[in-house]
């Protein structure tokens, strides 16, 4: 697993863009302008911040040592997930999917409809 695999996975989703809004090393993925994943491209370990349903966030933290409250984020709704082999690549991608869907479901009906049209 590397940053390019994460990048490719995120960019195939509808309405996703990537940018560096904070600095030259924090890569941010947004759906329709709303952040769902952040990562530092210069870290040796693969670690991402992902939005998460609060109950599910706690469940993941209890299940995996490599899932912690979101670094520099709202600890209730964001997790920092380090990919270190504790869970499968499929599980990791499912966490990314969950983050994407958490952001989409909070959008207005109009934005959700325009996303479906992409």
Q: Would you kindly provide a written description of the structure presented here, covering whatever features stand out?
A:
- The protein is an alpha+beta fold.
- Helices cover 37% and strands 27% of the residues.
- The protein contains four helices and six strands, in the order αββββαββαα.
- A six-stranded antiparallel sheet has the order 1-2-3-4-6-5, with helices on one face.
- The longest helix is centred in the C-terminal third of the chain and has 17 residues.
- The relative contact order is 0.18.
Helix content: 25-40%
Cα(first) to Cα(last) distance is 28 Å
- The dominant shape is globular
| Arithmetic mean pLDDT | 96
Strand pairing plus helix content: what structural class? alpha+beta
Describe the sheet with the most strands: 6 strands, antiparallel
Order of helices and strands: HEEEEHEEHH
Whole-number radius of gyration?
Answer: 14 Å
Low-confidence stretches: none
User: Largest sheet, order of strands side by side?
Assistant: 1-2-3-4-6-5
Q: Count of helical segments?
A: 4
Number of strands: 6
Strand content: 25-35%
């Amino acid at each position: 697993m590397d940053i390019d695999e994460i990048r490719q996975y995120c960019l195939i989703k509808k309405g996703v863009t990537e940018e560096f809004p904070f600095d030259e090393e924090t890569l941010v993925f947004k759906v329709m302008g709303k952040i769902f994943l952040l990562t530092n491209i210069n870290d040796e370990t693969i670690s991402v911040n992902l939005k998460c349903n609060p109950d599910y966030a706690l469940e993941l933290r209890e299940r995996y040592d490599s899932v912690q409250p979101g670094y520099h984020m709202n600890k209730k709704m964001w997790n920092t997930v380090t990919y270190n082999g504790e869970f499968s690549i499929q599980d990791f991608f499912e966490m990314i999917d969950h983050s994407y869907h958490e952001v989409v479901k909070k959008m207005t009906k109009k934005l959700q409809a325009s996303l479906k049209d992409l």
